[in-house]
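User: Run a structure prediction on this.
Assistant: Running it now.
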Amino acid sequence: MDPPNLRFFLLLMFASTINAQTFFPHEVCATTGNFTANSTYQTTLTTLLSSISTTNSLFLTYGFFNDSSAVSGASQTLYVIGSCLGDLTSESCRTCLDGSASDIRNLCPLQKAAVLYNENCTVRYSNASIFGTVATDPDYQLFNVNNVTSPDTYNAALRTLLDNLRGEAASGGSLRKYATGNTSAGFDTIYAMTQCTPDLTEQQCSDCLVIVIGRLTNCCAGKLGVRIMAPSCRFRYETNDQFFDPVGEPLPPPPASLSPAADAPPPPPGGKSNSTKTVIIAVATSVSAVLVIAVVMLLIVKRKKKQPRQRVEGEVVDEISMAESLQFDFGTISVATDNFSNSKKLGQGGFGAVYMGQLSNGQEIAVKRLSQNSGQGEVEFKNEVMLLARLQHRNLVRLLGFCLEGVERLLIYEFVPNSSLDKFIFDPLKRTTLNWDRRHKIIMGVARGLLYLHEDSRLRIIHRDLKASNILLDLDMNPKISDFGMARLFELDQTQAETNRVVGTYGYMAPEYAMHGNFSIKSDVFSFGVLVLEIVSGQRNNLFQVGDNMEILTSYVWKNWREGTLSNIIDPCITSSLSTEITRCIHIGLLCVQENVANRPTMASVLLMFNSHSVTLQVPSQPAFFMHTSIESDMSSTLDYSSRASEVNKSISKLNQFSKNEVSMTEPYPR
């Protein structure tokens, strides 16, 4: 790194330590000089940052993007690096980098060098070469404000874990330098991650992590969770929270332009250096290994396809044996919940009650106890165990274990202290605690959780019952999608399915699902759109009175959006003026609730629209207006769809007698 660039980083390193309440994105703009607006420098930078969108997805499989370009008419070159967390898929990486590239242009509009940290990725650019060089400043530090109870034991275990992961990440090769792991510290489990940008050598990566991890002592030693990000490397640890997703798939062969020698200095005269030969041999060996693994996996898949496999809806008995290590003793859970005392009861659902409990090690848990007389509940129980045992994401409620003993069927989850989202946004007092930043954070978290279910996990999951009461909020008001009893597993290449038993909740159900039993990832997108409009408005998506007329939220929002009166929609608790971000959320919500399935975006597109304001939004068509009433809001029962639809039609017919605007009430079908 040249001296001017080094000075830029050193001048700003002390300004970047913040507390955990100040979150992403976080930018540091260079103070070493500005470029002129609309200059060739700006044009070159915009082109470089925009090229992330068109980069071959194979590049982003490794979570790394770099590019450079000479500035026309000037004797300088611009360099751009983008790096993602190692557990992100290529599409999630692209979404994060696209959003960050847009943000860095807005937040550092004329600076010649900048770095922007986002939760899952980092983007940086400079007019000095940044490829293959170690940069540990400016860093970005976040930490949990709570301290560990036994710092000596805890810190010793943490040091050992981070040392091991540092070596593992550094030796990760030229494609991905990323490592995760966990260790026990008394009654606690420490989860940690280390990562370097793969343009660094093994020694450079190790040196970078030594410096950054060493900053724990001065900033946040003894905290329950810490993350420190630097331009070239980062690490994070959390207590009893597996924040990373497993990365089990072998890496494909690297494209030629990702070769580690692509940006390396030229070899000395007379031939290639030993290090260059080593790199070529290593890459050739890894490519051969990958090809062998790919062939073996292909043969396994073909063999499985030859074997006939019949599976009824919800049948997952075999998968329970895979989660034996998660099985709890019934007596243990009984003691933890004071024998399922009413004083421990958190709520009652369609298939049983939920209790708060505390294990002998002090860990708080939530226990879902299925009703013993619910045969359908047994199917949902097995379904939920199979799904959640394999899913790990920060925006999904974490399954700690289960109990299957006699007639007792229990699901043991992490305890989420702030209850569910509906307890806040629909409560006249609690809703005032949800300012717009918190609501936006909840929307983004739910979107990331859904994207994981649809695209980023090894399984493709359709939730089928996404609603405000199934979004739980942790201590920091981070959202966690819960209740997978209605979820369905898709094959990776499957796009839709149908069922004769429609389950879910009216108001959130997509019209093609409610009317015909057809569901897909776009059914969940519809539910997400309804949820977004509810969060913005603070109003349930059911029939409510506006003047002398009865309205449903989606139609009410559509009318006001079309007439330009968005202030009628927004919950007065969150803003006194209409912001661009709120307007964009309403627009995206309307795109999600369109009647035509093909017109609804995927969750990957939704996140891209949220993260990148440079993406132009389509004009939404009229949403699907599906009537629902308070007496028929819940479909979580054993009644089949035909009987439910008949009752709904009767209910709507009664309501029509009181409607002055019969056009909006005469048909229970989407229009």
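The first strand starts at residue 26 and ends at 29.
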